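Dear colleague,

As promised, here are the two records you asked about, laid out in our usual form so they can be pasted straight into your sheet.

NAME FIELD: protein one
SEQUENCE, THEN STRUCTURE:
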Amino acid sequence: MATAIQENGMKPLTNKSLNHVNDVNNLDNANSCTEEKDNRLFDGQLQPYVDHAEKPHEETHEEPHEEPPELDIVINNVVCSFSVRCHLNLREIALNGSNVEYRRENGMITMKLRRPYTTASIWSSGKVTCTGATSEVQAKIAARRFARSLQKLGFKVRFNNYRVVNVLGTCSMPFAIKITSFSVHHKENADYEPELHPGVTYKLKEPKATLKIFSTGSVTVTAPNVAAVQAAIEHIYPLVYEFRKERTPEDELAFTTKKRKLGLNKRKRDEFLEDEPDLSYESMISDAEDTLNEVETDGSWD
C-alpha cells in the first residue's frame, strides 16, 4: 500500500483513490510522462513541508508569571472581653480562687489558665479581659472557662457581651526593607521617627489596622480581628516590595536572634504545658463544657 504526503498529514492510498485509466492498451506508455511534470507534481506536494522546514523556529521567551511567595502570619495574641453581669467580690475571689493574684493598687484580679494558656483581668464591676490566646477560637474557650470558674465560686455569672477587641500578628518578609525611602514615598500614611521607634508606623483605614515595619523585613500588625490582619499583610506586601533590598549581616543577625528568641519562648511554653497539671485547679474547670446548663441562665452562654 502506498502513502502520499499531504498538508494535513499521512493518508493511505487505496484502490478507490487511484486515477482511472481509460485506455488499457496504452499502459506501456504510462511511464512516458515528462520528468518536468513529475517534478512539478512532486514539488507541489512537498512545498508546504519545505517552506515549513525553511522557516526558522521562533523561540518565544515568555517571562514566567511570578506569583507572590506564601507568607506565614503568626498570631501572637488575641485580646477579648466580656461581662458577667454581676458584682464580683475581689477579696473573696483572691481567698478562694486558684491561680489568682490580687492587685489592690489596680483594683483588679488576674487569673490564669493553663489550657489554653491565657490570663484574665477581672474587675469588681464584672468586666473581664482575656489575653494570651493564639486564635479566636481559643480566646472564646478561655473566656467561657474563666466565666465558669467565677460561677463555681458562687457568683451569679452570665456570659454576655463577648467580643474580640484586638489581634496581634507578625510576619517576616523574605527581604529587607528600605524603611526611610518607604516612609518618604508613603508619608501620608507612614510615620517614621527613628529617635523614638526603630520601625515605620503605617496606618490603614480599610481594613482598619496599624503596622510596624522594620528594616529587617519584620512586620507587626495590630487589627480588630484575624481576617483584618491577613488583609493588611496582603495590602502592604506590594508596597514594601518596591523598596526591598538584600539583608545586611547586621540584619541577618538581628533576624536570626529574634527567631531564636521566639523559638525559645515557644519551647518554654510547651514544656510548661507538658508539666503535671494543677489538679485542684483543673478539677474546677474540667467539667465546664459538660455542666453548662447546670445553673439556670438566660441563654446568653451561647
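NAME FIELD: protein two
SEQUENCE, THEN STRUCTURE:
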Amino acid sequence: MKLLMTYDYGPQAMAEIRALGHEVLYIRESGLETSKQDLSDIEVLVCYNPFKDLDLEAMPALRYILLSSIGIDQLPAERVMARNLVVTNNRGGYSKPMGEWIVWNLLSAFKNSAWFYDQQRKKEWKITTDVLELVGKTIGFLGTGTIAQEAAKRLSGFEVRRIGLNTHGKPHEAFDQVYSADDKLEFAGCCDAVVIALPQTAQTEHFVNQAFLDHMKPDAVLINISRGAVLDEAALVMALGKERFRSVHLDVFDQEPLPKDHPLWEIDRVHITPHNSWISEQRNNRRFELILENLKRLADGEQLLNIVDVRRGY
C-alpha cells in the first residue's frame, strides 16, 4: 500500500515500514501547504493534524488514517464519515507518562509543593502544617480509559479510594466503584480530588460545569489532562473567586496557547502547564510501535488496533 507519513521516525524505522511492502512518501505536516506532490494514489495517511493544509478530496484512494494522537477532535469528522474512512488512534500510547503526571500533581497538591518552592525562592526557613496525606482520600476519575487506568494503577500503593465515572457506570477492575454520567453530581461530592480524563465529544463539552464545581468539596483538588473544552473555564474562574479548591492543575485549555491576559494566570492556586503531560523519552518509541503493528496488520489483511468511532468521538 502507498502511505503518506507526516513525521519522520528515522531511517531505521522507515526502512522497517518499507520492508513490510509499503511504499512510503514523507512530507512533514508544516510542508503540506506548499507541497505539489501528487497524492491521488495514497491509501494510508499516518499523521497527527495535517487537516488544515491537506485536502482529503485530493486523495481519492485514501482508505485509512492512522493518528499519532489519542484525541481525534482535529479530524474533519463529516468528511471522514462520508467516505467511511477507517481511523485509528494512539490510545494507550501516552497513558503511562500521563498516569505519572496525575500522581505528581496529586502529591504536589496535597503536600503543598508550591508553598515550599515559594519559601525556597524567598530563602525563608519555615515549617507548615498544611501538608496532607493521600491515605484515605477519594480520588475520582472522570473517564475510565487507559489514562485513568494507568493513574489508578500507580495510586494502588497510596491507600486511596479510587472511583471512576463513565457513560453507563460500567465497572472496571482499576476502580473501587464506577458511577454513571447521570450521577455526576453525587460523584463530584464524594471526591477529595477530581481528575478529568474524558475525551472531547459533543456530549462531554463543559461536562465539568458550574453545577459540578459547586458540588465538589470546597477544599478539593481539580486536575485536567484531557481537553480544555470538557471544563467550563468561566465557571472555574468564578468558583476560584469564591476561594474554592485547594489547588487546580490544568494542562489543557479551551484556547492554546493560553492567552497572556487570561485570568487563570493570576490565581495562585492554579498551576498551569503547556499541554505537556503526554511527553516522555519513550513517546516516539511507543507511538511508532503501534503504527508499525497496524501497518503489519494492513499488510497481512488483519483487524487494526485502536479503531475509533468517529461519530462518538473516541
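A couple of things worth noting about protein two: The chain has a mean pLDDT of 97. The first strand starts at residue 2 and ends at 5.

Best,
R.
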